[in-house]
Amino acid sequence: MALQRIALGLEYDGSQFEGWQTQPHGRTLQDTLEQAIACFTQEPAPASICAGRTDTGVHALEQVVHFDTQRERAPISWVRGVNRYLPAALAVRWATPVASEFHARYCARRRCYEYWILNQGARAPLLTQRTGWVFRALDVEAMRAAAGHLLGTHDFSAFRSAQCQSATPVRTMHQCDVDRVAPALVRVRVSANAFLHHMVRNLVGALVSVGTGRHPSSWVAEILQARDRTRAAPTIEAGGLYLTSVEYDSRWGLPAASERRFLV
Fold first, then answer.
1. Which of 26, 44, 154, 156 is in the most buried spot, having the most CB atoms within 10 Å?
2. Of the candidates 192, 36, 175, 5, which has an alpha carbon nearest to the alpha carbon of residue 108?
């Protein structure tokens, strides 16, 4: 029987896993998903490919994954069947067959993330591992002005980790918005064609340094041009980061973004 390629949309609580990528200990999202698929299909665990390899503690409202299988199942069966074998912290939200040329990573046109900051004097235990915490007051207007320097195509070397294996540090930032959505909650929303390792957390760390008054808004442009990670701010904690969506060309036939969370 010929192999069929299946795309899945995943939602997960990243605090319960040690990142996406498979590890010998098996406590990762990739290992957990592949084992669940194997249990459902009664086939050897497939090799799954994701749109973005999230780190330990990073969450997703919609991670996109593909894998190949000999089993033919209706989309709803893939959702319910695989979810039967997944822990509560990880769920398949939608499934659809795709062309064999589809690739969850390389076919993605844009990735969107949000970082949520709890901005108040005392920490909130119920939001631990759900938000980053900044106890000093944040000047959102200054952060917004700094974020404007990040838009467009740039060399983001100042915001990549030392472990980053990307062939090029050049990325195109389409969106970088900063909003206070509640008295004690600040949201940073970013989208780009792709992101470097730790890039979003490093960007937010820089914006927080501006927001707390440590640097002027123009400082972000200076470190961007310097291309030197050692001159930038520390990496902010992982718990406030969410992969919210991945965009693809319509020719791949994935559900529209407005429909994906309501398929089942």
1. 156
2. 192
What backbone phi and psi angles, to 5 degrees, belong to 65?
Answer: -135, 150
What is the β-pairing status of strands 108-118 and 241-248? Answer: antiparallel
Work out whether strand 59-69 and strand 49-50 pair parallel, antiparallel, or are unpaired: antiparallel
Contacts of 248 (CB under 8 A, 6+ apart): 64, 107, 108, 109, 254
Give which of 190, 212, 214, 193 is closest to 202, Cα–Cα. Answer: 190
DSSP 8-state assignment for residue 124 = -
Q: Which of 13, 55, 155, 177 is catalytic?
A: 55
Is 55 a known active-site residue?
yes
Q: Which residue has the tokens 């900051």?
A: 117
Alpha-carbon distance 198 to 19, whole Å? Answer: 13
Residue 83, token pair as written in the block: 């979810």
Residue 25's pLDDT is: 86
Distance CA(89)–CA(36), nearest Å, equals 13
pLDDT in tens, 152-206: 999 999 999 988 888 899 999 999 999 999 999 999 999 999 999 999 999 999 9
Q: Are 93 and 263 in contact (CB under 8 A)?
A: yes
Q: Show the domains of the chain with their CATH numbers.
A: 4-106 (3.30.70.580), 109-243 (3.30.70.660)
Beta strands in 119-260 (DSSP E): 132-133, 152-155, 170-182, 185-192, 241-248
